[in-house]
Write a structure and sequence with these properties.
Blueprint: H1 2-9, H2 11-30, E1 33-37, H3 40-48, E2 53-55, E3 74-78, H4 82-92, E4 97-100, H5 114-126, E5 130-133, H6 148-156, E6 160-167, E7 170-172, E8 180-182, E9 187-192, H7 205-228
Parallel strand pairs: 1-9, 2-5, 2-6, 3-4, 3-5
Antiparallel strand pairs: 6-9, 7-8
Length: 250
């Protein structure tokens, strides 16, 4: 944590750290063989210029810039936390834009720009751009989709499509999200899920059912990605329990 604080406070050091991180991501991608499964799902939306919400677990963020075509405008929801700033600056090297804030419910004491972030995401989606959300970020519960992503999809009238990456050669960090670091010279895969629509009338139990459908699909594509590169999909640590009452964060 001390290192992150020092990086965050020094603009030159922060720039260098993000430059190196982006270079590492490029190096891993360039030296490895990558497979894409079910690309037809997002391709149908890209071809017709229809927006959707990209969702993936926080622990699988490292290689995700390469799941996205450079000619489609992507806006990642990134927290205002210090490490969120490092992520935002790193993905910026790949031409990805960011919306800074949280999808926590507005009006709460810990609302970190939730209302502004929500309005900005809706504006982007309504204008035909795309939005990316990590439903379990920035602090967990790990691999639990809180209702923020379903709420945004309902208000914007766009579907959610899950995606996950995995790599045969990797390091699994001991961080809260069990962050996956792909290593160079490996076999990697991106797995896309099927679009999940959230009805505009969804509230209460119906909205929670949509949240659960998104969470289930995210876990499915993550397990499938691990399986395809030779990892035991059942070896994924159990998801953290969902807090009560649930709070949506990003």
């Amino acid at each position: 944590m001390g290192l992150l604080k020092r990086i965050g406070r020094s603009r030159p050091v922060r720039w260098l750290a993000c430059f190196v991180a982006a270079g590492y991501i490029r190096f891993v991608h360039a030296t490895s063989r990558w497979q894409v499964v079910n690309r037809a799902a997002p391709e149908a939306f890209w071809t017709e210029g229809k927006p959707f919400i990209l969702a993936f677990w926080h622990g699988r963020i490292l290689m995700m810039p390469y799941c996205w075509p450079g000619n489609r405008r992507m806006n990642m929801l990134i927290s205002r936390h210090r490490d969120g700033g490092l992520i935002a600056d790193t993905i910026g090297w790949f031409g990805l834009d960011t919306v800074r804030g949280s999808s926590a419910k507005p009006g709460r004491e810990k609302d970190k720009g939730a209302t502004a972030a929500l309005m900005e995401m809706l504006r982007k989606l309504k204008s035909g751009e795309y939005v990316g959300i990590t439903p379990d970020g920035p602090r967990g519960p790990r691999m639990r989709a809180t209702d923020g992503v379903a709420a945004v999809a309902r208000l914007a009238g766009v579907p959610v499509i899950a995606c996950a990456y995995s790599a045969r050669r990797r390091r699994l960090l001991s961080s809260w999200d069990r962050f996956v670091v792909a290593l160079p010279f490996t076999k990697g895969v991106f797995v896309w899920g099927e679009p999940i629509a959230v009805p505009s009338s969804a509230k209460g139990e119906a909205l929670d059912a949509a949240r659960l459908a998104i969470e289930t699909e995210l876990t499915r594509v993550t397990r499938e990605a691990d399986r395809l590169v030779g990892h035991d999909p059942d070896a994924i640590l159990p998801a953290d329990p969902l807090p009560a009452p649930a709070e949506a964060t990003a």
